[in-house]
Amino acid sequence: MRIVTLLTLCAVLWCSQGRKQEECLNQHITPPMIKDMMETSELIQKSLPVSIWIYTWTPITMCTFNKVTCITNVLLLLQKDNAHFHRILGKLKNCSKKLNVADFKRILEIYNEHVFQKLWKNNSQQLPKMFMGSFLRLKYKMEICETEGSQTLSLCGEENLKTIEDTIKMLQPKSLLKAQSEFPQVLVWISIAMDKRRTHEIH
Fold it and tell me: Signal peptide span per the entry (predicted)?
């Protein structure tokens, strides 16, 4: 009986910590902030040279002339030196709704250290500077909210984040841009985690 009571209390405490973290996210991270980061990320992609933009986004709709040859060349380009990198964040897709604040904090750390710092450490262009300003604020607020509850990775995080980090470490510059192009998915997951009682859509 004591064991059951203890387990019940632990479960209540765990849920309470989760709610505090959720409340913290809603207090410190606003939907407009997430939306602005997603829009800036898209603008960065569109500002890249066409060859790199094709590499990172695979816009098949651009293939209006000799479409079959164009699509073939795009696919060959993607496979050339990036065979190991096919939607790296896809590893989290099936369990994204189970990600917690500690997971998000770790994802932001991985992206900061192994993607954004390598891409834009000495970049003075306006769009990357705008994005990094918002990103660092998001990272700081996530660190604050982590202290409101559990700082342990979820099972989803434990099983996948180390593999994701190891893969990102091996990426070449063009592949880093591909990683950057997938970051908006992280923002969507964070938005959903801000209130798990309803589904968030960012327009």
Answer: 1-18
What number of other Cβ atoms are within 10 A of residue 199's Cβ? 9
Q: How many CA atoms lie within 13 A of 100 on its CB side?
A: 22
How many whole angstroms separate alpha carbon 181 and alpha carbon 187? 12
pLDDT per residue of the chain (203 residues) written in tens, 0 to 9: 555 444 444 444 444 555 888 889 888 898 899 999 999 998 988 887 654 444 454 444 444 444 445 544 544 544 444 444 457 888 898 899 899 999 999 999 999 999 999 988 777 788 999 999 999 999 999 999 999 888 899 999 999 999 999 999 998 877 888 889 899 999 999 998 886 644 444 44
Q: At a CB cut-off of 8 Å and minimum separation 6, what does 149 contact?
A: 17, 18, 20, 21, 101
The two three-digit tokens of residue 66, written as one number: 């000799």
- Cβ(139)–Cβ(112) below 8 Å: yes
> Using CA atoms, how far apart are residues 165 and 199, in angstroms rounded to an integer?
28
Instruction: Evaluate whether 183 touches 41 at the Cβ level (below 8 Å).
Output: yes
Q: Which residue has the tokens 């954004």?
A: 116
19: left (phi over 0), alpha (psi -120 to 50) or beta: alpha
- Which DSSP helix (H) or strand (E) runs through 46? helix 31-47
